[in-house]
Design a protein that fits this description.
Blueprint: H1 13-40, H2 48-52, H3 60-69, H4 76-87, H5 102-137, H6 142-155, H7 159-172, E1 173-174, E2 177-178, H8 193-231, H9 234-241, H10 246-275, H11 278-283, H12 289-297, H13 302-330
Antiparallel strand pairs: 1-2
Helix pairs in contact: 1-4, 1-13, 5-6, 5-8, 5-10, 5-13, 6-8, 7-8, 8-10, 9-10, 10-13, 12-13
């Protein structure tokens, strides 16, 4: 009599449990952001109803009419339940200052932010990985010390300060350096086709340089640290003993294993860059989500501020979750 066979377990079950746990954690975080965004911005001083009047003297009846129109006359708990119910269906409310759906204003500004952050993200990721790899492989030499020193210095500089400095030197002009770039905005206007693309690229240079300068250092340092940890491994010594050239050992063996922490950082940085572009867009008057957030915050335009805050926080949460889901595919030991 043959013994009964043990039931098979699907090979993907541990990963599915891991992914479900990360997805559930992301859902809880998004719900917490939804709640926080409502109550946090109620602490901002200022009356949005008075802003809607444009400073004109209005009667109490007119003020009450504005409050009824936007639901500001309801008890706070009822405003909260209405906000959550609508947000779950994709309705983030109506902007006080634009009198338009918040989701429409976000959709309108989102491509501009993605253009800025996407360009900067690709550049500082490639720059950080390449320079981090070279620094680690030439550990202790002049190039390594120079790369690390510059990266640490730029990483510690506030982005808005660096942006203002670039505007003063390269947009306004300083001494022998002429002003060759626009001081702000996304386009000069009146151009179409290829001329329009060149004009946008011209406006893009300084804000992209600002983001790249303050962000590439972290990628460089993480890549350098991870590669230094790998350089003493036995399999690299074995590869060298087999007669492989040093550049092949680095490219085929050391770098792929060392890039695992960098891959996680890349996804985290992508979400963080979208959320952290507020200051750069404000300094350069870039018409994206960051500039829109600053404009809404000064009113305060509560629905627009809440919607943008939710988008920024969601970008960070979703990118973190995506990094968590991809990491076990690169390193099977994770998620077991």
């Amino acid at each position: 009599m043959q013994p009964a066979r043990e039931p098979r377990t699907h090979a993907g079950t541990p990963y599915l449990r891991y992914a479900a746990g990360r997805a559930a954690g992301a859902a809880v975080s998004l719900l917490a952001v939804l709640v926080t965004s409502f109550f946090l911005f109620r602490l901002i001083p200022g009356d949005p109803v008075k802003f809607m009047t444009g400073g004109r003297p209005v009667s109490a009846a007119q003020l009450a009419s504005y409050r009824r129109e936007f639901g500001l006359d309801l008890p706070l708990w009822q405003q909260f339940t209405d906000y959550c119910g609508k947000a779950l269906t994709g309705d983030l409310g109506t902007s006080y200052q634009f009198r338009a759906p918040v989701i429409d204003k976000i959709t309108e500004a989102l491509p501009n932010t993605l253009l800025l952050t996407g360009t900067a993200f690709v550049l500082y990721t490639v720059l950080g990985v390449v320079l981090g790899t070279r620094s680690a492989w030439r550990h202790g030499r002049l190039g390594d010390r120079l790369n690390t020193g510059v990266a640490l210095t730029l990483y510690s500089i506030p982005s808005f300060w660096l942006g203002l400095l670039l505007i003063i030197v390269f947009a306004v002009g300083m001494g022998p350096v002429p002003g060759v770039f626009p001081t702000g905005g996304m386009e000069s206007g009146g151009k179409e086709g290829f001329a329009y693309a060149v004009d946008v690229a011209h406006h893009l240079v300084l804000p992209v340089i600002t983001l790249v300068a303050v962000e590439y250092g972290q990628t460089l340092l993480v890549t350098r640290s991870a590669l230094l940890d790998e350089m003493g491994s036995d399999y690299l010594t074995t590869a060298r003993a087999k007669g492989l050239r040093d550049d092949l050992v680095r490219r085929r063996h050391a770098v792929p294993n060392a890039l695992l922490p960098t891959v996680t950082l890349v996804f985290v940085n992508l979400g963080r860059t979208v959320a952290g572009v507020i200051l750069v867009e404000t300094v350069f008057s870039w018409p994206g989500l960051g500039g829109l957030f600053y404009q809404a915050l000064s009113v305060p335009d509560l629905p627009l501020v809440q919607g943008l805050f939710f988008v920024f926080a969601s970008a960070v949460i979703l990118m973190n979750t995506l990094a968590d889901l991809i990491y076990p595919l690169l390193d099977p030991r994770v998620g077991r």
